[in-house]
Amino acid sequence: MAEVNDYEVELLEYFESHTPRSVKNIDDEIYFAKTASSNFLKKTKNINIRLAESDILKVKRKSAELNIPYQTILSSVIHQFATGKIKVIM
Question: What is the per-residue burial (b if ≥16 Cβ within 10 Å, else e) of 5-39?
Answer without folding.
Answer: eeeeeeeeeeeeeeeeeeeeeeeeeeeeeeeeeee
